[in-house]
Design brief:
The protein folds into two domains: 160 residues, Aspartate Aminotransferase, domain 1 (Alpha-Beta Complex); 243 residues, Aspartate Aminotransferase, domain 2. Helix content is 41%, strand content 13%. It binds 4'-deoxy-4'-aminopyridoxal-5'-phosphate.
Length: 428
Protein backbone atom coordinates (compact mmCIF):
# COMPACT_ATOMS: atom_id res chain seq x y z
CA UNK A 1 0.00 0.00 0.00
CA UNK A 2 1.39 3.39 -1.00
CA UNK A 3 2.50 5.54 1.94
CA UNK A 4 0.79 8.40 0.17
CA UNK A 5 -2.61 6.77 0.81
CA UNK A 6 -2.10 6.05 4.53
CA UNK A 7 -3.74 8.04 7.33
CA UNK A 8 -1.43 10.01 9.62
CA UNK A 9 -2.14 7.52 12.38
CA UNK A 10 -1.05 4.60 10.20
CA UNK A 11 2.04 6.51 9.06
CA UNK A 12 2.98 7.04 12.72
CA UNK A 13 2.44 3.37 13.55
CA UNK A 14 4.66 2.34 10.65
CA UNK A 15 7.31 4.88 11.65
CA UNK A 16 7.52 3.70 15.24
CA UNK A 17 7.94 0.09 14.07
CA UNK A 18 10.74 1.07 11.69
CA UNK A 19 12.45 3.23 14.28
CA UNK A 20 12.86 0.31 16.63
CA UNK A 21 14.49 -1.60 13.77
CA UNK A 22 16.75 1.41 13.30
CA UNK A 23 17.83 1.36 16.97
CA UNK A 24 18.72 -2.33 16.71
CA UNK A 25 20.88 -1.61 13.67
CA UNK A 26 22.62 1.34 15.33
CA UNK A 27 23.61 -0.96 18.20
CA UNK A 28 25.47 -3.20 15.73
CA UNK A 29 27.99 -0.39 15.02
CA UNK A 30 28.33 -1.38 11.37
CA UNK A 31 30.84 0.04 8.97
CA UNK A 32 29.56 -0.50 5.41
CA UNK A 33 30.18 1.51 2.27
CA UNK A 34 28.25 1.80 -1.00
CA UNK A 35 29.86 5.06 -2.02
CA UNK A 36 32.85 3.91 -4.00
CA UNK A 37 32.70 3.33 -7.77
CA UNK A 38 35.64 0.96 -7.68
CA UNK A 39 36.15 -2.62 -8.85
CA UNK A 40 36.37 -5.21 -6.07
CA UNK A 41 39.38 -7.46 -5.42
CA UNK A 42 37.97 -10.33 -7.48
CA UNK A 43 37.72 -7.98 -10.47
CA UNK A 44 41.28 -6.76 -9.95
CA UNK A 45 42.45 -10.37 -9.80
CA UNK A 46 41.10 -10.88 -13.34
CA UNK A 47 43.97 -8.78 -14.70
CA UNK A 48 46.87 -10.19 -12.70
CA UNK A 49 48.09 -12.26 -15.66
CA UNK A 50 48.62 -9.04 -17.57
CA UNK A 51 51.59 -8.37 -15.31
CA UNK A 52 53.27 -11.49 -16.73
CA UNK A 53 53.00 -10.43 -20.36
CA UNK A 54 56.01 -8.18 -20.08
CA UNK A 55 59.11 -9.18 -18.08
CA UNK A 56 62.89 -8.88 -18.13
CA UNK A 57 63.11 -11.38 -21.01
CA UNK A 58 60.60 -9.53 -23.22
CA UNK A 59 61.56 -7.64 -26.31
CA UNK A 60 59.95 -4.30 -25.62
CA UNK A 61 59.72 -2.99 -29.16
CA UNK A 62 56.42 -1.66 -30.46
CA UNK A 63 55.08 -2.73 -33.87
CA UNK A 64 56.72 0.38 -35.28
CA UNK A 65 60.10 -0.84 -34.05
CA UNK A 66 60.24 1.82 -31.35
CA UNK A 67 62.00 0.70 -28.17
CA UNK A 68 59.30 1.24 -25.53
CA UNK A 69 61.87 1.36 -22.75
CA UNK A 70 63.06 4.73 -23.94
CA UNK A 71 61.65 8.26 -24.26
CA UNK A 72 59.46 9.28 -27.19
CA UNK A 73 56.20 8.37 -28.87
CA UNK A 74 54.23 11.35 -27.60
CA UNK A 75 50.90 10.10 -28.94
CA UNK A 76 51.25 6.43 -27.98
CA UNK A 77 52.32 3.26 -29.76
CA UNK A 78 50.34 2.25 -32.88
CA UNK A 79 48.97 -1.02 -31.50
CA UNK A 80 47.62 0.77 -28.40
CA UNK A 81 45.97 3.37 -30.65
CA UNK A 82 44.28 0.53 -32.54
CA UNK A 83 43.05 -1.11 -29.33
CA UNK A 84 41.69 2.08 -27.81
CA UNK A 85 40.12 3.12 -31.14
CA UNK A 86 38.35 -0.23 -31.33
CA UNK A 87 37.07 0.22 -27.79
CA UNK A 88 35.61 3.61 -28.65
CA UNK A 89 34.40 2.44 -32.06
CA UNK A 90 36.50 4.98 -33.92
CA UNK A 91 39.66 5.05 -36.09
CA UNK A 92 43.25 4.76 -34.77
CA UNK A 93 44.39 7.83 -36.71
CA UNK A 94 41.99 9.85 -34.55
CA UNK A 95 43.53 8.64 -31.28
CA UNK A 96 46.23 9.73 -28.85
CA UNK A 97 47.03 7.21 -26.12
CA UNK A 98 48.00 8.87 -22.87
CA UNK A 99 49.01 7.97 -19.36
CA UNK A 100 47.11 6.32 -16.56
CA UNK A 101 44.08 8.60 -16.35
CA UNK A 102 41.50 9.89 -18.81
CA UNK A 103 40.42 12.47 -16.25
CA UNK A 104 43.91 13.98 -16.48
CA UNK A 105 43.50 14.28 -20.26
CA UNK A 106 40.19 16.10 -19.77
CA UNK A 107 41.75 18.41 -17.18
CA UNK A 108 44.76 19.11 -19.40
CA UNK A 109 42.65 19.97 -22.44
CA UNK A 110 40.50 22.36 -20.46
CA UNK A 111 43.59 23.87 -18.89
CA UNK A 112 45.01 24.33 -22.40
CA UNK A 113 41.78 25.97 -23.58
CA UNK A 114 42.01 28.31 -20.60
CA UNK A 115 45.58 29.43 -21.14
CA UNK A 116 46.14 29.13 -24.90
CA UNK A 117 42.69 28.96 -26.48
CA UNK A 118 41.56 26.26 -28.91
CA UNK A 119 42.60 26.41 -32.58
CA UNK A 120 43.39 30.11 -32.49
CA UNK A 121 40.33 31.22 -30.50
CA UNK A 122 40.52 33.48 -27.45
CA UNK A 123 41.79 31.71 -24.31
CA UNK A 124 38.87 30.83 -22.09
CA UNK A 125 40.47 32.61 -19.14
CA UNK A 126 39.77 35.86 -21.03
CA UNK A 127 36.10 35.01 -21.50
CA UNK A 128 34.17 36.61 -18.73
CA UNK A 129 31.09 34.64 -17.65
CA UNK A 130 32.43 31.48 -19.26
CA UNK A 131 29.99 28.63 -18.82
CA UNK A 132 29.83 24.87 -19.17
CA UNK A 133 26.78 22.63 -19.54
CA UNK A 134 26.48 19.87 -16.97
CA UNK A 135 23.83 17.23 -17.66
CA UNK A 136 22.64 16.15 -14.21
CA UNK A 137 22.59 13.74 -12.52
CA UNK A 138 26.16 13.39 -13.73
CA UNK A 139 29.75 12.79 -12.64
CA UNK A 140 30.96 15.05 -9.82
CA UNK A 141 34.61 15.03 -10.94
CA UNK A 142 33.62 16.42 -14.35
CA UNK A 143 31.74 19.26 -12.71
CA UNK A 144 34.66 19.86 -10.34
CA UNK A 145 37.16 20.38 -13.19
CA UNK A 146 35.10 23.10 -14.83
CA UNK A 147 34.24 24.70 -11.48
CA UNK A 148 37.96 24.76 -10.69
CA UNK A 149 38.59 26.78 -13.86
CA UNK A 150 35.97 29.33 -12.93
CA UNK A 151 33.23 28.23 -15.30
CA UNK A 152 29.63 28.82 -14.36
CA UNK A 153 28.06 25.36 -14.29
CA UNK A 154 24.66 25.16 -15.98
CA UNK A 155 22.63 22.05 -15.15
CA UNK A 156 20.84 20.32 -18.03
CA UNK A 157 18.09 17.81 -17.21
CA UNK A 158 18.65 14.18 -18.15
CA UNK A 159 15.99 11.84 -19.46
CA UNK A 160 16.11 8.18 -20.47
CA UNK A 161 17.62 9.09 -23.89
CA UNK A 162 20.38 11.34 -22.56
CA UNK A 163 20.53 15.09 -21.91
CA UNK A 164 17.43 17.10 -22.83
CA UNK A 165 18.54 18.13 -26.33
CA UNK A 166 15.92 20.87 -26.69
CA UNK A 167 17.61 22.63 -23.78
CA UNK A 168 21.14 21.93 -25.08
CA UNK A 169 20.36 23.19 -28.62
CA UNK A 170 18.66 26.32 -27.34
CA UNK A 171 21.49 27.21 -24.96
CA UNK A 172 24.49 26.57 -27.22
CA UNK A 173 22.98 28.36 -30.20
CA UNK A 174 22.19 31.52 -28.25
CA UNK A 175 25.22 32.11 -25.99
CA UNK A 176 28.86 32.19 -27.10
CA UNK A 177 30.15 32.10 -23.53
CA UNK A 178 28.95 28.48 -23.29
CA UNK A 179 32.18 26.66 -24.08
CA UNK A 180 31.34 23.01 -23.67
CA UNK A 181 29.29 20.17 -22.28
CA UNK A 182 30.12 17.06 -20.28
CA UNK A 183 28.68 13.77 -21.56
CA UNK A 184 28.95 10.12 -20.53
CA UNK A 185 27.16 8.58 -23.51
CA UNK A 186 27.12 4.93 -22.48
CA UNK A 187 26.00 3.62 -19.08
CA UNK A 188 26.11 7.15 -17.78
CA UNK A 189 27.48 7.83 -14.31
CA UNK A 190 25.20 7.61 -12.32
CA UNK A 191 22.00 6.83 -14.26
CA UNK A 192 23.34 3.94 -16.32
CA UNK A 193 21.40 5.06 -19.40
CA UNK A 194 22.75 4.89 -22.97
CA UNK A 195 22.26 7.96 -25.17
CA UNK A 196 19.82 7.23 -28.00
CA UNK A 197 20.92 7.42 -31.64
CA UNK A 198 18.73 10.50 -32.06
CA UNK A 199 20.42 12.23 -29.13
CA UNK A 200 23.84 11.44 -30.63
CA UNK A 201 22.75 12.80 -34.03
CA UNK A 202 21.52 15.96 -32.38
CA UNK A 203 24.85 16.35 -30.60
CA UNK A 204 26.78 15.96 -33.86
CA UNK A 205 24.53 18.52 -35.53
CA UNK A 206 24.67 21.20 -32.84
CA UNK A 207 25.10 24.74 -34.12
CA UNK A 208 26.97 26.41 -31.28
CA UNK A 209 27.45 30.16 -31.31
CA UNK A 210 30.94 29.72 -29.82
CA UNK A 211 33.39 28.48 -32.48
CA UNK A 212 35.41 26.86 -29.70
CA UNK A 213 32.45 25.03 -28.13
CA UNK A 214 33.47 21.44 -27.35
CA UNK A 215 31.63 18.26 -26.41
CA UNK A 216 33.60 16.30 -23.80
CA UNK A 217 32.40 12.81 -24.71
CA UNK A 218 33.62 10.67 -21.84
CA UNK A 219 33.07 7.11 -23.01
CA UNK A 220 34.42 5.71 -19.74
CA UNK A 221 32.01 2.76 -19.74
CA UNK A 222 32.12 1.89 -23.47
CA UNK A 223 32.73 -1.83 -22.92
CA UNK A 224 31.19 -2.17 -19.46
CA UNK A 225 27.98 -4.10 -20.14
CA UNK A 226 26.75 -6.32 -17.33
CA UNK A 227 24.49 -8.35 -19.63
CA UNK A 228 26.20 -10.19 -22.47
CA UNK A 229 23.24 -9.94 -24.79
CA UNK A 230 23.23 -6.18 -24.26
CA UNK A 231 25.79 -5.13 -26.82
CA UNK A 232 24.87 -1.50 -27.18
CA UNK A 233 27.27 -0.10 -29.74
CA UNK A 234 26.54 3.58 -30.03
CA UNK A 235 27.34 5.58 -33.20
CA UNK A 236 30.90 6.90 -33.49
CA UNK A 237 30.62 10.53 -32.43
CA UNK A 238 33.87 11.43 -34.20
CA UNK A 239 32.53 10.35 -37.63
CA UNK A 240 29.08 11.75 -36.90
CA UNK A 241 30.55 15.19 -36.14
CA UNK A 242 32.67 14.94 -39.29
CA UNK A 243 29.60 14.12 -41.41
CA UNK A 244 27.70 17.00 -39.85
CA UNK A 245 30.48 19.44 -40.79
CA UNK A 246 31.54 19.83 -37.14
CA UNK A 247 34.77 17.78 -37.11
CA UNK A 248 36.47 19.80 -34.36
CA UNK A 249 33.51 19.97 -31.97
CA UNK A 250 34.21 16.82 -29.96
CA UNK A 251 36.86 15.16 -27.81
CA UNK A 252 36.15 11.56 -26.88
CA UNK A 253 37.83 9.89 -23.90
CA UNK A 254 38.19 6.40 -22.50
CA UNK A 255 40.54 4.38 -20.34
CA UNK A 256 41.19 0.89 -19.06
CA UNK A 257 40.81 2.00 -15.44
CA UNK A 258 37.81 -0.26 -14.86
CA UNK A 259 39.08 -2.96 -17.21
CA UNK A 260 42.48 -3.67 -15.69
CA UNK A 261 43.72 -1.56 -12.76
CA UNK A 262 42.34 1.89 -11.82
CA UNK A 263 45.33 4.17 -11.54
CA UNK A 264 47.52 1.81 -13.57
CA UNK A 265 45.61 1.59 -16.80
CA UNK A 266 45.99 3.45 -20.08
CA UNK A 267 43.86 6.34 -21.31
CA UNK A 268 43.02 7.79 -24.70
CA UNK A 269 41.52 10.81 -26.37
CA UNK A 270 40.05 10.72 -29.88
CA UNK A 271 39.38 13.79 -31.98
CA UNK A 272 39.78 15.49 -35.37
CA UNK A 273 43.22 15.88 -37.02
CA UNK A 274 43.26 19.61 -36.18
CA UNK A 275 42.43 18.98 -32.52
CA UNK A 276 45.04 16.21 -32.29
CA UNK A 277 47.73 18.60 -33.57
CA UNK A 278 46.49 21.17 -31.06
CA UNK A 279 46.67 18.64 -28.20
CA UNK A 280 50.14 17.44 -29.16
CA UNK A 281 51.13 21.10 -29.30
CA UNK A 282 50.77 21.44 -25.52
CA UNK A 283 51.44 17.80 -24.59
CA UNK A 284 54.98 18.11 -25.90
CA UNK A 285 55.70 20.65 -23.16
CA UNK A 286 54.11 18.47 -20.48
CA UNK A 287 55.85 15.17 -21.20
CA UNK A 288 58.50 13.52 -23.36
CA UNK A 289 56.14 10.61 -23.79
CA UNK A 290 53.69 8.33 -22.00
CA UNK A 291 54.34 5.00 -20.24
CA UNK A 292 54.71 2.88 -23.38
CA UNK A 293 55.62 -0.27 -21.46
CA UNK A 294 52.19 -0.17 -19.85
CA UNK A 295 50.63 0.35 -23.28
CA UNK A 296 52.53 -2.70 -24.53
CA UNK A 297 51.49 -4.71 -21.47
CA UNK A 298 47.83 -3.97 -22.20
CA UNK A 299 48.03 -4.76 -25.91
CA UNK A 300 50.00 -7.96 -25.44
CA UNK A 301 47.53 -9.15 -22.82
CA UNK A 302 44.29 -8.37 -24.67
CA UNK A 303 45.64 -8.70 -28.24
CA UNK A 304 42.52 -7.08 -29.69
CA UNK A 305 38.99 -5.87 -28.96
CA UNK A 306 37.73 -9.47 -28.82
CA UNK A 307 40.20 -10.01 -25.96
CA UNK A 308 38.79 -6.97 -24.14
CA UNK A 309 35.22 -8.13 -24.65
CA UNK A 310 35.98 -11.62 -23.30
CA UNK A 311 37.65 -10.01 -20.28
CA UNK A 312 34.68 -7.68 -19.72
CA UNK A 313 32.34 -10.69 -19.74
CA UNK A 314 34.23 -11.92 -16.66
CA UNK A 315 33.77 -8.55 -14.97
CA UNK A 316 30.09 -8.75 -15.87
CA UNK A 317 29.74 -12.15 -14.19
CA UNK A 318 31.03 -10.61 -10.97
CA UNK A 319 28.99 -7.41 -11.17
CA UNK A 320 25.65 -8.72 -12.42
CA UNK A 321 24.67 -10.53 -9.18
CA UNK A 322 25.56 -7.43 -7.17
CA UNK A 323 23.39 -5.12 -9.25
CA UNK A 324 20.59 -7.67 -9.20
CA UNK A 325 20.81 -8.08 -5.42
CA UNK A 326 20.41 -4.33 -4.90
CA UNK A 327 17.51 -4.18 -7.34
CA UNK A 328 15.74 -7.13 -5.70
CA UNK A 329 16.04 -5.70 -2.18
CA UNK A 330 14.86 -2.28 -3.33
CA UNK A 331 11.90 -3.97 -5.00
CA UNK A 332 11.09 -6.13 -1.96
CA UNK A 333 11.33 -3.20 0.43
CA UNK A 334 10.05 -0.23 -1.52
CA UNK A 335 7.96 -1.34 -4.47
CA UNK A 336 4.40 -0.06 -4.31
CA UNK A 337 5.06 2.46 -1.52
CA UNK A 338 5.05 5.34 -4.01
CA UNK A 339 8.11 6.92 -2.44
CA UNK A 340 11.07 6.02 -4.68
CA UNK A 341 12.33 5.27 -8.18
CA UNK A 342 15.62 3.80 -9.26
CA UNK A 343 17.40 2.74 -12.45
CA UNK A 344 18.12 -0.84 -13.50
CA UNK A 345 21.16 -0.30 -15.73
CA UNK A 346 22.54 -2.75 -18.28
CA UNK A 347 26.09 -1.65 -17.59
CA UNK A 348 28.38 0.83 -15.90
CA UNK A 349 29.06 1.16 -12.20
CA UNK A 350 26.04 2.81 -10.61
CA UNK A 351 22.36 2.74 -9.78
CA UNK A 352 20.68 6.12 -9.60
CA UNK A 353 18.01 6.38 -6.91
CA UNK A 354 15.40 9.11 -6.50
CA UNK A 355 13.52 9.71 -3.26
CA UNK A 356 10.50 11.97 -2.95
CA UNK A 357 11.50 15.64 -3.11
CA UNK A 358 13.50 16.84 -0.13
CA UNK A 359 14.38 13.40 1.26
CA UNK A 360 17.78 12.53 -0.24
CA UNK A 361 20.22 14.27 2.11
CA UNK A 362 18.37 13.17 5.27
CA UNK A 363 18.36 9.60 3.92
CA UNK A 364 22.13 9.61 3.41
CA UNK A 365 22.64 11.16 6.87
CA UNK A 366 20.46 8.54 8.53
CA UNK A 367 22.30 5.77 6.68
CA UNK A 368 25.59 7.06 8.00
CA UNK A 369 24.17 7.05 11.57
CA UNK A 370 23.37 3.37 10.99
CA UNK A 371 26.92 2.73 9.77
CA UNK A 372 26.44 2.80 5.97
CA UNK A 373 28.27 5.34 3.80
CA UNK A 374 26.83 6.70 0.54
CA UNK A 375 28.09 9.38 -1.83
CA UNK A 376 26.79 12.66 -0.36
CA UNK A 377 23.35 13.55 -1.69
CA UNK A 378 23.64 16.30 -4.28
CA UNK A 379 27.09 15.15 -5.47
CA UNK A 380 25.59 14.21 -8.82
CA UNK A 381 24.63 17.87 -9.46
CA UNK A 382 26.76 20.94 -10.26
CA UNK A 383 28.07 22.58 -7.06
CA UNK A 384 26.81 19.52 -5.16
CA UNK A 385 23.38 21.10 -5.22
CA UNK A 386 20.45 18.91 -6.21
CA UNK A 387 17.63 21.48 -6.34
CA UNK A 388 15.01 18.86 -5.52
CA UNK A 389 17.19 16.99 -3.00
CA UNK A 390 16.12 13.69 -4.53
CA UNK A 391 19.06 11.90 -6.10
CA UNK A 392 21.36 9.36 -4.46
CA UNK A 393 24.07 7.40 -6.27
CA UNK A 394 24.40 3.75 -5.26
CA UNK A 395 27.71 2.07 -6.08
CA UNK A 396 27.32 -1.68 -5.66
CA UNK A 397 30.63 -2.87 -7.13
CA UNK A 398 33.25 -2.66 -4.39
CA UNK A 399 31.57 -4.22 -1.33
CA UNK A 400 31.09 -7.96 -0.91
CA UNK A 401 27.67 -9.51 -1.48
CA UNK A 402 26.83 -9.90 2.21
CA UNK A 403 27.61 -6.24 2.90
CA UNK A 404 25.77 -5.07 -0.21
CA UNK A 405 22.62 -6.86 0.86
CA UNK A 406 22.73 -5.57 4.41
CA UNK A 407 23.63 -2.03 3.29
CA UNK A 408 20.77 -1.95 0.77
CA UNK A 409 18.27 -3.13 3.41
CA UNK A 410 19.45 -0.38 5.74
CA UNK A 411 19.26 2.11 2.89
CA UNK A 412 15.64 1.12 2.16
CA UNK A 413 14.82 1.38 5.88
CA UNK A 414 16.35 4.82 5.93
CA UNK A 415 14.37 5.94 2.87
CA UNK A 416 11.17 4.77 4.54
CA UNK A 417 11.87 6.47 7.88
CA UNK A 418 12.86 9.79 6.34
CA UNK A 419 9.87 9.79 3.98
CA UNK A 420 7.44 8.87 6.75
CA UNK A 421 8.76 11.69 8.92
CA UNK A 422 8.31 14.17 6.07
CA UNK A 423 4.79 12.96 5.30
CA UNK A 424 3.80 13.13 8.98
CA UNK A 425 5.25 16.62 9.32
CA UNK A 426 3.46 17.75 6.20
CA UNK A 427 0.14 16.42 7.49
CA UNK A 428 0.64 18.14 10.89
N1 LIG B 1 34.93 9.26 -16.30
C1 LIG B 1 33.90 8.70 -15.65
C2 LIG B 1 32.52 8.90 -16.15
C3 LIG B 1 34.13 7.94 -14.50
O1 LIG B 1 33.09 7.39 -13.86
C4 LIG B 1 35.47 7.76 -14.05
C5 LIG B 1 35.80 6.94 -12.84
N2 LIG B 1 34.94 6.96 -11.81
C6 LIG B 1 36.49 8.38 -14.75
C7 LIG B 1 36.20 9.12 -15.88
C8 LIG B 1 37.92 8.28 -14.32
O2 LIG B 1 38.68 7.72 -15.33
P1 LIG B 1 40.26 7.57 -15.26
O3 LIG B 1 40.58 6.58 -14.20
O4 LIG B 1 40.63 7.11 -16.62
O5 LIG B 1 40.84 8.92 -14.94
Amino acid sequence: MSYLDLSTEDLKKELSKLKSEMEEIKALELNLDLSRGKPDKEQLNLSMEMLNTVNSKSILDAESGMDCRNYGGLDGIPEAKQLMADMMGTRPENVIVGGNSSLTLMYDIISHAMTDGLLGEKPWCQVEDRKFLCPAPGYDRHFAITEHFGMKLIPVPMNENGPDMDVVEELVSSDDTIKGIWCVPKYENPMGIVFSDETIQRFANLKPLAKDFRIFWDNAYCVHSIYQNEETDIPDIISECEKAGNPDMVYEFCSTSKITFPGSGISAVASSPANLIDIKGFLKYATIGPDKINQLRHVRYFKNIAGIKAHMAKHADILRPKFEAVDKILNDELNGLGIAEWTKPNGGYFISFNTLKGCASDTVTLCSKMGVAFTPAGATYPYGNDPEDQNIRIAPTFANMKDIKLATKIFALSVKIVTLEKLINKAA
